[in-house]
Automatic annotation (TrEMBL):
PANTHER family: BLL6722 PROTEIN, CYTOCHROME C PEROXIDASE-RELATED. Heme c 2 binds at C231, C234, H235. It is found in: Periplasm. Residues 216-377 form the Cytochrome c domain. Residues 1-21 form the signal peptide. This is Cytochrome c peroxidase. Binds 2 heme groups per subunit. Heme c 1 binds at C84, C87, H88. Binds 2 heme groups. Keywords: Heme, Iron, Metal-binding, Oxidoreductase, Periplasm, Peroxidase, Signal. PROSITE patterns: CYTC. GO terms for cellular component: periplasmic space. The lineage of its organism: Bacteria, Pseudomonadati, Pseudomonadota, Alphaproteobacteria, Hyphomicrobiales. The keyword Disulfide bond does not apply.
Length: 396
């Protein structure tokens, strides 16, 4: 059974009531949306550098249109029920608010949280553990993983696409050829690189010189972020742009802490059933209807280098207000919880990165830091959502 986070379900519902990402107001022309997407992927939004497009896969409108269709097509899973977009929901910041960890076909559990694809084109390694270096090949893992889309092979998907008549002209327009594994990856890569969002209030202030773009509290939070908090040591801010990630792998103490909790489960857990209503549930009842939670060794599972145990890729902080829950397993529902974890110095377990240490922030400083993090949300998310939903998904 999947491990649902009831607090995340309520959080997602509450956020959706007032978040522009959940209620797109941007009008998109079905005939020209891909032109805007292509221009965006070739542009340099305020606060972001140019997207590094592969030399052998320059973006085109035809590739972006094909990639969007593939991303939303449920027929690409073994039982025609799951698409990429079901774990990367456009209205939810291209991730999933309701679940701590993703689920695949037939409700099969996945041990990690769905990462957002917003600005994914800037990353040099993909997945929380960096197991794939390219968007052109990243899709193969989810397509064939038994607990995700569960196809028996990548070739099975290629054969399927060549049998679907509506895909033939799309591949011809994009590549002048029929569907193949490399062309599927090129189209998906081209589409995902167009899902980019900068020009946040922070960008308008820090890079654009608009002093009124953020509040005084956000400016104080920035000083904490780059100073006392030491956050910018891993969540980088460059002179002309800010990706808010070093694209590296670190042991923050969190992974090992969660493994210790897995091996030593509590006798009861709090379950939020309504806003402000929490019940303590006997944890043995949860275990009786759940599969056993897997250990997660992070980067070690890719390299098998002992020093890589518990290391995970530094996530970008852009648009994090619309991409809860947080951490690689979605255990934290709110930014307040994340800030509290780092303020206390992580878990303090052996091997933890020495840059993670008690910060001793005051209540006001924690509030200001959170206000700064909230200023990293782009105003363009509703247009990205509208583009994604320009057509109905296949097999809906």
């Amino acid at each position: 059974m999947p491990r649902f986070s009831f607090s995340c379900i309520m959080l997602g519902f509450l956020i959706s009531l007032g978040n522009t990402a959940a209620q797109p107001s941007c009008e998109v022309d079905p005939e020209s949306w891909s032109k805007a997407a292509l221009q965006r992927s070739l542009s340099t939004p305020l606060g972001l550098p140019p997207i590094p497009h592969p030399a052998d896969n320059p973006p085109t409108r035809a590739k972006i249109e094909l990639g969007r269709k593939l991303f939303f097509d449920r027929r690409l899973s073994i039982n025609r029920t799951m698409s990429c977009a079901m774990c990367h929901v456009p209205e939810q910041g291209f991730t999933n608010w309701e679940l701590s960890t993703a689920i695949g076909v037939e409700g099969r559990s996945i041990k990690r949280n769905s990462p957002s694809i917003l600005n994914v084109g800037y990353l040099s390694t993909l997945f929380h553990d960096g197991r794939d270096p390219s968007l052109e090949t990243q899709f193969i893992g989810p397509l064939t993983a038994r607990n995700e889309m569960a196809n028996p092979s990548a070739g099975h998907v290629v054969s399927l696409l060549n049998s679907l008549l509506e895909y033939k002209p799309l591949f011809e327009d994009a590549f002048g050829a029929h569907a193949s594994l490399d062309r599927i990856g090129m189209a998906l890569g081209a589409y995902q690189r167009s899902v980019m969002a900068g020009n946040s209030p922070f960008d308008q202030w820090h890079f654009g010189g608009n002093e009124a773009a953020v509040s005084d509290a956000a400016k104080r939070g920035y000083e904490i972020f780059t100073g006392k908090g030491g956050c910018s040591g891993c969540h980088l801010i460059e002179e002309e742009y800010a990706l808010f990630t070093d694209d590296q792998f670190h042991d923050t103490g969190y992974g090992q802490m969660r493994e210790n909790e897995r091996q030593n489960p509590p006798s009861s857990i709090p379950v939020q059933v309504a806003p402000g209503v929490v019940h303590q549930m006997d944890f043995s009842k949860v275990l009786s209807v759940s599969i056993k939670r897997e250990a997660d060794l992070g980067r070690y599972e890719v390299t098998e280098v002992p020093l890589d145990r518990w290391k995970f890729r530094t996530p970008t902080l852009r648009n994090l207000t619309v991409t809860p829950p947080y951490m690689h397993d979605g255990h934290f529902s709110t930014l307040t919880e994340v800030i509290r974890f780092y303020d206390q110095g992580g878990s303090g377990l052996p091997g933890q990165d020495p840059r993670i240490h008690p910060l001793k922030l005051t209540g006001t400083e924690r509030t200001d830091l959170e206000t700064f993090l909230r200023s990293l949300t782009s105003p363009d998310l509703d247009c990205l959502t509208a583009e994604a939903r320009v057509e109905q998904p296949d097999n809906y």
